Amino acid sequence: MLSQPCRAVMLFILANKIPCEDRRVNLAVGEHLTAEFSKLNPFHKVPVIDDNGFIVKESVAILRYLSYEKNVPDHWYPKDRKQQAKIDEYLEWQHLDTRLNCSMYFIVKFLRPLITGQTPSKKIISEYEDKMKRTLDMIETIWLKSTPYLIGDNITIADLFGVCELEQPRMAGYDPCTDRPQVTAWMNRIREEMNPHYDKLHERVNKIATKAPGSIVPDNFPKV
Description:
By secondary structure, the chain is mainly α. The chain is built from ten helices and two strands, in the order ααββαααααααα. Strand 1 and strand 2 form a beta hairpin. One of its GO terms (cellular component) is cytoplasm.
């Protein structure tokens, strides 16, 4: 559950009560590189689902598929093609913005030093932080300018992907809500709507974030 796309997929599954068998993949010991896992996903990435023998890789494809095939409310990924197109706008945009920039900040400042034991230069951290801030500012001033959710007045799969990405830099000590009231209200709104699943799936994120100065942690979440 340290993977943003995995959290988004599990949030959707739990919120919609889709029956599933949850199989965790231990990336730290290389379970994603085994021959068994390669049969499911030769790209060696998570998440991946096996729906009665039908394999779907890539988190965006997974949630689109589940929206089509399972009995879920239409607001998640509406059948109306124009509404779908507006959701797809964000999903396509996020790859080189929300996902890329929040992930790279987390990797450069937190994950890579944890793995290698080497501290990156302040200049490199600053460069990645600036890119992330530009993305967060666009979410604040464009995507959430006049609506409670990324795409209009109802929660969609775009919100799940977006919010899980914004949770990631908290583990590296950055609060994505700083001076961003729209982002703050949106993240709180998603958390409230998705609980208790939201807090459960973010347990490890929150535990790490409590040790990172400057990050935000829900008021009712226990300190460690």
